Amino acid sequence: MLVLSIRCAPSSARDLLVGVDDDEQMTEAEIDELFERTQPIGNAINALARAELAVAAVDELDPTVAARLEQIRQAVIADSD
Q: Which residue among 33, 47, 54, 79 is least crowded, i.e. fewest CB within 10 A of its CB?
């Protein structure tokens, strides 16, 4: 059984996290309702994961691109002097 403490969530949201493994005893309608209620949480987690991947993708530049950007940076510095 999964039990989490979410201090900022209303009690109805906290209640969703208690007895999460009880889906074997739930009707399809109950499962669908819980899915709908928790979908925004899943969407937020997915958005965070995608953002993390996007940051990681640009965190390490291709050496050729990095060299070209350095050339441009140096040219801009030289032009501003």
A: 79
